[in-house]
Sequence to fold (323 residues):
Amino acid sequence: ETGSVFFDKTILEFLRESKTIRFGAEGASSLVKRAKANSKKSCLVRNLRRVFKLFSVYGSHGFVIKAFSELSSSEKKYDLVISSSDPKASHLLVMKYLRENVKWDLWIQYWGDPLAQDITATDILPRWIKKHEERKLLNAASKIVYVSPLTLDEQRKVYPNAANKMYFLPTPYLAYSNLSRKSESDKIKIGYFGNYNRSVRNIEPLYNIVSRNPKFELIIAGDSEMKLDSRSNIQVYPRIDIKRIHELEKECDILVCITNKKGSQIPGKLYQYAGTSKDVLVILDGNIAPLKAYLASFERFDFCVNEEHDIQNALNQYDENKQ
Fold:
């Protein structure tokens, strides 16, 4: 709502007057794509980038930030610079390149996930190397913002010298989405939209329960190294575009979020789901007690533990409420 801690329209006015540097189709990665298109060694470049990602703190974006160095010179002084991750290389861009040529009064780092403790990272670097790099970034910032209070507590313990600069701010949603259901089926339809790599999230208990229960239907869409087969009441999609995701969300009665097996990160989609008219089931894994205590304070979500019998009980409750 306008005026709440989750939404402030003055932020939109601020953004319209600010200068934004993006990592994306219209940003630095497009410069790399154009360079690759003109190279006869583009295949070799792609393979080298895959290998580089395994040994790089910043993944493939470590290649990209240099493309902005020619844009970083400016005589203007900024009141505020905000670097936002992901990608985490946005912080490196400010620290390593922009500060050489751009002046500012305040630098705020906004972190979706921490660097050293991000369990979704695909590199094979020792954690101490990533902690060393993360410490340099945090020490250089004026203020540091995290989107999970649990992550904030952990980061303050790991980096005590930067603890007094660290703050928590929940992820906002811009507008409430009244996602009225389109499906005419009498079955309760459940949607899980996101990655589910085995090392990070365990989707198998949910998959197994629904596959044995014809009262429910399940849609799964996202990347994973696991091979899940579609069934009569389960549709499994690979990663699909956001427009199609929204179409499938409208078909669902329940939107599911599975928390990570370990760590303090809260999936951002949970805040997005809070801004819809759908029931939201949080399947808890990992550090369960503090996660549930924090999320329960919103009085918005339903909870169960990531075990088959507990998921079954939660789904049975939805079925009883429907009747």
Confidence is low (pLDDT under 50) at residues 1-8, 25-36. The chain is about 35% helix and 15% strand. Residues 308-322 form the longest helix (15 residues).
